[in-house]
Amino acid sequence: MADQQRGLEAMIRSRRTARQRRRMDAENLDPGTLEELEDERHRPRPNEQRHRDPMNRFIQDRR
């Protein structure tokens, strides 16, 4: 039974995105980390080339 429970928890954990996981960790750590996460949310990821698409500019500037 404990084994089954552990498996379920692992499944749920794997479904969480890395960002959600970092946010949860940040809530358990110091308050400064949460601000870093908020900051990171607006930073475009390398595979997104927002700066080339003028229609998406507002997403980048919406701080």
What can you tell me about this protein's structure?
The chain has 63 residues and is mainly alpha-helical. It has a domain at 9-41. The chain has helices at 2-15, 18-28, 31-42, 57-61. The protein is elongated and about 55 Å long. The model has no long low-confidence stretch (mean pLDDT 64).
Features:
63 residues, mainly alpha, 0% strand
Report the end-to-end length measured between terminal Cα atoms.
Answer: 47 Å
Work out the number of β strands: 0
Helix content: 55-70%
Residue fraction in strands: under 5%
Tell me the layout of helices and strands.
Blueprint: H1 2-15, H2 18-28, H3 31-42, H4 57-61
Brief overview, please?
By secondary structure, the protein is mainly alpha-helical.
